[in-house]
Amino acid sequence: MSDNAVASPSETTEPSAHDHEVLAELTAPVPEVGDGGPEMVQLLTPEGQRVESTEYDHYVQDLTDDDLRGFYRDLVLIRRVDAEATALQRQGELGIWASLLGQEAAQVGSGRALRPQDYAFPTYREHGVAWCRGVNPLNLLGLFRGVNHGGWDPNEKNFHLYTIVIGAQTLHATGYAMGIQRDGDVGTGDEARDAAVIAYFGDGASAQGDVNEAFVYAAVNNAPVVFFCQNNQWAISEPNERQTRIPLYQRARGFGFPGVRVDGNDVLAVYAVTQQALNAARSGNGPTFIEAYTYRMGAHTTSDDPTKYRVSAEVEVWKHRDPIERLKSYLVHEKKADQEFFDAIDREADELAATVREGCLTMPDPTGESMFDHVYVEPHPLVEQERREFVDYHAGFAAEGGH
Amino acid sequence: MTTMTIAKGINNGLRVAMEKDSRVVLMGEDIGKLGGVFRVTDGLQKDFGEDRVIDTPLAEAGIVGTAIGMALRGYRPVVEIQFDGFIYPAFDHIVSQVAKMRARSLGKVKLPMVIRIPVGGGIGAVEHHSESNEAYFAHTAGLKVVCCSNAEDAYWMIQQAIETDDPVLFYEPKRRYWDKGDVDETTAPRELFKAQVCREGTDVTLVAYGPMVKTCLQAAEAAEAEGKNLEVIDLRSLSPLDMDVLTTSVRKTGRLVVVHEASTFLGLGAEVAASVTQQCFYHLEAPVLRVGGYNLPYPPSKLEEEFLPDLDRVLDAVDRSLAY
After folding, report:
1. B269 in a domain, yes or no?
2. Helix A65-90 vs helix A137-145: crossing angle, to nearest 10
3. pLDDT in tens, B137-178
4. Most exposed residue of A9, A223, A315, A316, measured as fewest CB within 10 angstroms of its CB?
5. C-alpha to C-alpha distances, A125 to A94, A99, A268, B31, nearest whole angstrom
6. Residues A153, B108: contact at Cβ < 8 Å?
């Protein structure tokens, strides 16, 4: 028996394993954190300073102060909904949640660039895009609560169901764009008619065959689709360098269409770059690849533990690039919004969060029999037989007085 | 009545479907000018244009993935997979997206698409060109799976599949593509998801689909010379299964032999045997027997005649069934 084994806790002076980890992190050099490089389009610095751009100013010059305040409202509200959903997961009300924390500007900037007739194909993290399209946040929660697999009508808001299989939706988006071409809704010059598709995916998905096939199909068909990659630096635990040897936006060139990197935490720049790409698509000039350079501030999902694979110093660097703070600084500096406005938005966010919470807690569970609905459009004898058996089986318990 | 091959039957059926509905588009590798490696789409691009008969890049996940998008936009894509063994890159889209989209959307979305697959062996091909993978898809809820065996069904079933609002995998018996048959082009003789008794008999029921229907009909003819009266059922629909036709027949004959090219382990024959046994237990005079490919990777073509069921192996099973 060793001495340690009989020592009382108060006599133990050895630091714990956890202390070792903390010390190691504190003394470790701050990792190199990429800033997107000189090619990255930026209209607002992290400090909220407006940067001029001869190429992109054009796309934001018509934005009114109301529009800018609207962006701010979108960013704050969707972050608040996201935080509420994370809390609901922690309280056992959602099975899992994929947080968009840090990526609000990439989603709101691109989402607000869409016209009603455009179509968005999301991953499972595009809560901000869903918000911009007018999809009720509760629809998103239904999936993560296990009530349904999405279940909203994609054609109501031109926002497809969340796609969990990584990258698969880029092909669906491309095919949808090929349909738009065949409908003649490209290049007519009619702003209410010409349509484009936007396909969302992440840096991890860029390795998928589907995504690369989507690039090929879009290119050879000159399809009106914008590939919008949120490079949040991490594919669960794997950093960019496990996915690519060149900046992602440069891949587009090899497929035969333009690629551009934009500061994904700069809502103005994202809005401008996405406008440009959507305009090109709608007018018949084919696909564009946008790499929105951003950062996943939280875990991959609520089941993940990022402390196992990345250091907090990196997160700290990105905190200084926060998309909401930079727009707020800009609005304040330019006197486009006052404290009263910011307070009102915070109140609205709290009210929205309360509504979302209430809606989540009161969301009815589906009935057992409902799983037999909607497997097929037309009747299927096996499904109907099993439905009858299911109903009879449960009716047997009711007849016995049980549940 | 017009006489045509199975390949021509499908070709004519596609043509009619495209004339009827401008939302029907064909997608696949080499289906345009070439008319597909089996010429099933011969002449269609010339008549309907490159926007409706789309020569796709050589990437099967891309074909099915973009077809999903086309269907979401309101089109009715008919996809050609060049050979059975090349469908696997598209497997994820078929199983995870095509099959589930309706349920995921709680009925808000439908995917009326047809995936055409030349199936089976017997043509002396190199590997990956002779596979029978229908069970993977019949196993998948949300898909419907059919297989034609003759020119008339080829002509009508492809049209019916295209008109179906659910996704349909349409298997074509590639070694029978050039078999001729009479086709009544005025009215569809039967519904898509129904089995057909193509030869009536009393002693043993043979059930097959696609390329093996002809083998079973030949076996029944040979057996007749020996005084055995075999009933032959063409299953036609692999999912859903038409259990009524199957059980009616088995209640009459009391004996069932299922024949397919696919390996028997967990093949369609396993499901047929289980379901028939469950529904006709007291009518069975013998266990349901299966004749199929051995449970091996498809062999080199010099061996495929040994691997695939043939008339003699079918009759051997008939004799074993009758011996119970």
Report:
1. yes
2. 20
3. 999 999 999 999 999 999 999 999 999 999 999 999 999 999
4. A9
5. 15, 7, 21, 38
6. yes
Mutate to test the interface with A, among B72, B239, B242 (most CBs of A within 10 A): B72
Among candidates A148, A168, A378 on the partner chain, residue whose Cβ is nearest the Cβ of B92:
A168
User: Based on the domain organization, do B14 and B136 belong to the same domain?
Assistant: yes
Q: Considering only CB atoms, which chain A residues are within 8 Å of B108?
A: 151-155
Q: Which residue of B has its CA nearest to A179?
A: B70
Q: How many helices (H) and strands (E) does chain B have?
A: 12, 14
Identify the segments of chain B with pLDDT beneath 70: none
Q: How many residues does chain A have?
A: 403
Q: For A15-24, how does the pLDDT look when each residue is reduced to its tens digit (9 = 90+)?
A: 566 677 666 6
Do B38 and B120 belong together in one domain? yes
SS3 A114: coil
Inside any domain, residue B66: yes
Residue that terminates a domain, selected from B148, B183, B218: B183
Structure confidence by residue, pLDDT tens digits, A331-376: 999 999 999 999 999 999 999 999 999 999 999 999 999 999 999 9
Is 0.85 exceeded by the ipTM?
yes
Of A112, A251, A296, A326, which residue is the catalytic one?
A296
Interchain contact, A374 vs B243, CB within 8 Å: no
Query: Which of B51, B61, B108 shows the shortest C-beta gap to A171?
Result: B61
pLDDT value of residue A74 = 98
Q: Is B179 within the bounds of a domain? A: yes
Question: Are B132 and B220 within 8 A, CB to CB?
Answer: no
CA angle A34/A36/A41 to nearest 5° reads 165
Question: Hey, which residues of B are catalytic here?
Answer: 129
pLDDT given for residue A9 in this prediction: 46
Q: Which residue in chain A has the smallest CA separation from B106?
A: A151
- Type and span of the H or E element at A325: helix A323-333
- B145 and B292 share a domain? no
pLDDT of residue B109: 96
Mind listing the pLDDT tens digit for each residue in A131-140? 999 999 999 9
Does residue B100 sit in the same domain as residue B245? no
Catalytic residue among A300, A321, A326, A357: A300
Which of B155, B183, B211 is where one domain is finished? B183
If asked whether residues B6 and B145 sit together in one domain, one would say: yes
**Residue B190 covered by a domain:** no
pLDDT at B191: 97
Report the phi/psi class of residue B142: left, alpha or beta, with left for phi > 0 and alpha for psi in -120 to 50: left
What range does the domain containing B275 cover?
Answer: 196-323
Is residue A12 over pLDDT 60? Answer: no
Q: Do A160 and B72 touch (CB under 8 A)?
A: yes
> Same domain, yes or no, for B245 and B318?
yes
pLDDT value at A27 more than 90: no
d(CA B180, CA B182): 7
How many domains, chain B? 2
